[in-house]
Write a structure and sequence with these properties.
Length: 381
């Protein structure tokens, strides 16, 4: 069976690229599938997430990402030129390779992938929730225009997704948003490894993991930490993530949080950082799944999370292996973190239970669900 994965870029740290590289590596190493990866960015640059030698990849070197720094009026025409180039190169590639299954991550290729007559079954996988994907929020446009464009853009995507053989989403909570679709499958993201060394939850250290971007809700975390730090000045908060940290460092300084908060760059061995922590916190406005919650739990660290959409309520069992907090309730969030700080026995008990709960996200278990899906598609093609 030949399977092609569209992956975009693997040269910088982000959760989606990490999960995609993990999946294709597992399929290449543990099955008899021929696995191919299609990249579009930064040809010749080293991968942040390495691919197995068994994965055959091509990089079209189109570099959509270079347009991000340009103002909207300047990048429209270059974008459509690059999109035409991508469509032409991707079509030629599939027509020559003739794979059995082609997997789209529902980005630029979803606009044309169903029209490529290469004979492969087209499968989509989305790493965001439906309600938070394809949102227009341009500051120079009136809100009603942004809403109209979002509606049109989403409608276009929905039409293409309905044409896919299957579309894989991450949570049952999000599945409720896909009314009218008969091709939806739910498969959560896998934990890359289960560490042999676990946290003993004794260090006065709280950890958060995620890129430095508005949807991660670090503004909410800092407000909560202001309360927490006043009550427990001997504890520290370490954040690890990619992106520009400068504005977040400024927020820490403005709130006079001193040395109690550190905004760190991403690290490849994030599990070693979980092992040195006693509480995991996440204050995102939304997530596709929230894999970092499961990773922290696998390392024996209980999590405190807002009940944002989607993921936390399917990963955390409240008051058993972590604590769920009403979305946006800063004071309640601070109280929950302080509770774990003040009750070491309860913290350690939750950490032990978290390790047991996280086993359902083991790589072997999740990837077997993908393999079964691919076999069923291949059998019925």
């Amino acid at each position: 069976m030949k399977i092609v994965y569209v992956m975009g870029d693997l040269t910088y740290a982000n959760g989606m690229s990490r999960v995609l590289s993990q999946k294709v590596n597992y399929l290449a190493e543990h099955t008899d599938f021929e696995v191919y990866a299609v990249l579009t960015e930064n040809a010749g640059q080293p991968f942040y997430f390495p691919l197995s030698p068994k994965v055959k990849y091509v990089n079209f070197d189109i570099n959509f990402e270079c347009l991000n720094a340009m103002p909207m009026y300047k990048k429209v025409i270059p974008y459509f030129k690059k999109q035409r180039q991508f469509r032409r190169m991707f079509t030629d590639y599939l027509m020559q390779l003739r794979p059995d299954i082609t997997v789209s991550i529902l980005r630029r290729e979803i606009n044309f992938i169903n029209d490529i007559p290469d004979g492969s079954k087209k499968v989509g996988e989305i790493h965001f929730t439906k309600s938070n994907y394809r949102q227009f929020n341009l500051s120079f446009l009136p809100s009603f225009v942004n809403k109209y464009l979002t509606k049109r853009w989403t409608h276009q995507m929905d039409k293409q997704i309905k044409r896919l053989c299957k579309c894989v989403i991450l949570t049952n909570e999000d599945k409720k948003n896909w009314i009218g679709f008969d091709n939806i499958e739910v498969i959560p993201n896998p934990i890359s490894n289960f560490p042999a060394v676990h946290s003993d939850c004794s260090q006065k250290r709280v950890i958060a993991v995620g890129r430095y971007s508005p949807e991660k809700g670090y503004d909410r975390l800092f407000k909560a930490w202001k309360i927490i730090n006043h009550r427990h000045p001997d504890w520290v908060l370490d954040i690890y993530g990619s992106g520009d940290r400068s504005s977040y460092v400024e927020q820490v300084e403005t709130l006079q949080l001193g040395q109690s908060v550190k905004c760190n760059a991403p690290v490849k061995d994030i599990f070693s950082k979980y092992q040195q922590s006693s509480v995991f916190v996440i204050t995102s406005y939304h997530e596709g799944f929230g894999l970092v919650i499961a990773e922290a739990m696998a390392t024996g660290v209980p999590a405190v999370s807002f009940t944002f959409s989607c993921g936390p309520r399917e990963i955390i069992t409240d008051e058993v292996d972590g604590i769920l907090v009403e979305n946006g309730n800063i004071e309640q969030f601070a109280d929950a973190v302080c509770y774990l700080m003040e009750h070491e026995d309860r913290r350690k008990q939750m950490g032990q239970q978290a390790m047991k709960s996280a086993t359902r996200f083991r790589e072997e278990e999740i990837m077997q669900r993908w393999i079964q899906l691919f076999h069923s598609i291949y059998k019925n093609r």
